[in-house]
Amino acid sequence: MPPIHDNNKYVRIGNQTAFSAQSPELPFDFALNSGFDAFEWFSDKKSWGQGWDIMDADTQTRRRIREDAISHNITMSVHCPAEANPMSDDFKDTFIKHIEFACDIGASNINIHLFTEQGIEGYMKSLIPLIGITAKAKINLSIENTTITGPDDFNRLFSMINKTLPAIKHVGMCLDIGHANIFHETRNDFLRFIDRLDVPVIHIHAHENFGDIDNHQTLFTGPSKLNSLGLRGFVKRMTDRRFNGLIIMEQWPDPPELLINARLGLLDFFRDLPYA
C-alpha cells in the first residue's frame, strides 16, 4: 500500500461509486479525469436498479478497470454491501465474489462492517476464515465502524484477533469519521473517538455531519466549512499513527467538483505537517 507521504508529501485520497450518480461509471471516470489516486468500488445497488454491483462488471469491464487504474496510478479498494454480516449464512458466497472482483481489478483492500448484535466473540470467530481468504489473495481486510459501534468494540475485537492470530498484519480498522461523529459516546467529537482507539487503522472513509444524521456531507461543506480544527486534528492523528492506507470520500455531491476541493484541502493539511 502507498506511504502516507511520497516524495511530494501526498497521501492517496479518492472517491467511491455512488447510487446517486446518474450512471454507475461516472464516479470512476471522474476520479480518472481529476487526477485522484484512490478509488473504492461499493456494492450498493438499490432494489429499483440504481447504483452499482460487482455483477455489473463482466470480464472485459474488470480488465479495463484494472488497466485504467494502473495507467492513472490509482490504488483501489472494494466495499462489500453494507448489510453483509460475516455471521449470516450467505455471507461467505458474497465475500468470495467480492474478493474475486478485487483480485480481477487489482484492488489492495476489501472492507466490511462490524456487527456486534451477536457479540464480539462470535464476530471474531466469523472473521477467521475471511482472514485466511484475504491472506491468500494478498489483500488487506478492513473492518468499519458504523454509527452504533464504538472504540471499545474495536479495541476488544482486535485484542481477540491479536491473541488468536498474533502474526496477522493485513487486518485493521476502516475508520469512518462521519460515523464516529454520530456514535453516542463521541457525538460531535470524532477526535475523541480516534483517541480512544488502540487498533491499527488501515483504511479511512471521510465525510462529515453535525452529529445528528449520517448524511455524508462532503468535507469542507459541513462543520469544517467554518472551523477546520477537527479535520486538522484528524490529519495530525493519522500522521502520528503513520497511516498508510487510502482515504475515501464517500459521497457524490452536486457539483462533484466539491470532491476536488475536499481532496486538495486535506492534502494541504498533510503538507503542513512533518512526517516523522
Helices, strands, pairings?
Elements: E1 13-16, H1 26-34, E2 38-42, H2 59-71, E3 75-79, H3 91-105, E4 109-113, H4 120-137, E5 140-144, H5 151-164, E6 171-176, H6 177-182, H7 190-195, E7 201-206, H8 229-240, E8 246-249, H9 257-271
Write structural notes for this entry.
This protein is about 40% helix and about 15% strand. It is α/β, with parallel strands linked by helices. An eight-stranded parallel beta barrel has the order 1-2-3-4-5-6-7-8, surrounded by four helices. It has a single domain (about 15-270), classed as TIM Barrel (Alpha-Beta Barrel). It has nine helices and eight strands. The chain starts with 12 loop residues before the first strand and ends in a 5-residue tail after the last helix.
Fill in the CATH topology.
TIM Barrel
Named CATH architecture: Alpha-Beta Barrel
Task: Indicate the CATH class.
Answer: Alpha Beta
The gross shape turns out to be: globular
Q: What class, by secondary structure content? A: alpha/beta
The total of beta strands comes to 8
Measured between the Cα atoms of the first and last residue, the distance is 19 Å
At the fourth level of CATH, the homologous superfamily is Divalent-metal-dependent TIM barrel enzymes
Number of domains: 1
How many helices does DSSP assign? 9
Query: In what order do the strands lie side by side in the largest sheet?
Result: 1-2-3-4-5-6-7-8
